[in-house]
Write a structure and sequence with these properties.
Blueprint lengths: L2 H10 L9 E6 L4 E6 L4 E4 L1 E2 L1 E2 L10 H5 L6 E5 H5 L3 H8 L3 H5 L5 E5 L12 E2 L2 E6 L2 E5 L1 H11 L3 E3 L11 H19 L9 E5 L5 H12 L6 E4 L8 H11 L9 E6 L2 H10 L3 E4 L1 H7 L4 E2 L17 E2 L16 E5 L10 E5 L1
Parallel strand pairs: 4-15, 5-6, 6-7, 7-11, 11-12, 12-13, 13-14, 14-15, 16-17
Antiparallel strand pairs: 1-2, 2-3, 8-9, 9-10, 18-19
């Protein structure tokens, strides 16, 4: 499947996408299938961001990535860019991130989140947020974030947010939602404006009323190109995460893409897809690799049903929910698996 070719055919037929960034091809009770496209490339969703460290996917050269089908989405951490005067370096070299990292043909998301570490919470004030970098906490003001976007020119960016922990107090959660909306407004009102599609974070910790308030007020900002479901990956159960998603997602514009940070195993991702999430990051393969495991996916027939056997690898047996069949998810989830095999993590397409 060539997403760019598919988009070209559809546009020639007059079926123009409603959004310049995301085209939702179908939306049924089982799964949202869409195409995320930028000036550099296009990819079918649902799919997963490859994590990077200073713009580089660990253990993969750009030549390796170019040989892997679907290795298109790269997650760039803002702390990697703002610390050590990375923005000043790009400005001095007069290069964008695509030119500096040699990632032409890839889709880059600039975000404050780091998939390798889901400890996002730090000190924040109404005027700035702090993010964790290699040299400690780094202060990021909305105007500095806008300037970084103008210099680096990512394909997409996530607005700064004050993201409290999932189990933060109600007072802290309310303050985080208010500050995130204030940061978002500051970025949206910047002059000149952000030069790329901007995603806004919907948060609210474990408070359903705050999740609803955050989703409703964020959705009212029509300039937002997509949404990030934040505050997850901090020890909550799958049931708790599902309740928060069910509260927020119906209030968001269904024509815009949704990103979920902090999901874990493939089971978590499948459940999130069924609830209407389009894009993911995850530290699950990283943690398994650091523990010395490789991941295998035995699939028998339409539904995988087998028993673990003692091996040198960690076998993740995925058993879909009873209502999920191989036809329900008739597309492949583009699932990058970081393994210890040959020291080169392949990108596996895992058909469900």
């Amino acid at each position: 499947f060539d997403p760019m070719q598919r988009m070209s055919v559809e546009m020639q037929e007059g079926d123009l996408p409603a959004s310049p960034l995301f085209y939702l091809k179908t939306e049924d009770p089982a799964i949202r299938i869409g195409v995320l496209r930028t000036s550099n490339n296009a990819i079918e969703t649902p799919c997963w961001f490859l994590p990077t460290s200073r713009g580089i996917v660990p253990h993969l050269t750009i030549d390796n990535m170019n040989q892997i089908p679907g290795a298109t989405l790269l997650h760039i951490n803002s702390p990697d860019l703002v610390e050590n005067k990375g923005v000043d370096l790009l400005a001095h070299l007069k290069q964008t991130m695509h030119e500096f990292y040699n990632t032409r043909g890839k889709i880059l998301l600039l975000s404050l989140h780091n998939p390798a570490s889901y400890n996002f919470e730090g000190s924040a004030t109404p005027k700035y947020v702090t993010v964790a970098g290699n040299s400690g906490r780094i202060m990021v003001k909305p105007e500095e974030f806008v300037h970084a976007c103008h210099v680096a020119r990512p394909d997409m960016a996530t607005a700064p947010c004050d993201e409290p922990g999932f189990y933060a107090s109600n007072k802290r959660t309310i303050r985080g939602v208010d500050r995130s909306l204030a940061y978002l407004d500051a970025v949206l009102q910047a002059n000149p404006p952000v030069p790329c599609p901007l995603f806004a974070t919907v948060e609210g910790g474990s408070s359903i009323p705050e999740r609803i308030r955050s989703a409703r007020l964020t959705n009212e900002r029509s300039q937002v190109a997509g949404f990030v479901l934040g505050g997850f990956g901090q020890g909550e159960t799958q049931e708790e995460r599902s309740r928060m998603l069910q509260a927020a997602l119906p209030l968001l514009d269904s024509a815009k893409p949704r990103i979920l940070h902090g999901v874990g195993s493939p089971d978590d991702i499948i459940e999130a897809v069924l609830q209407g999430i389009d894009l993911f990051d995850s530290n699950y393969p990283l943690l398994q690799t650091e523990a010395g495991y490789a991941l295998t996916f035995p699939v028998l027939g339409d539904l995988p049903q087998s028993t673990p056997t003692p091996t040198q690898t960690h076998t993740h047996l995925h058993t879909p929910p009873p209502h999920l069949t191989s036809y329900s998810l008739h597309r492949c989830l583009h699932f990058p698996i970081r393994t210890t095999v040959n020291t080169c993590p392949p990108l596996l397409e895992v058909p469900i």
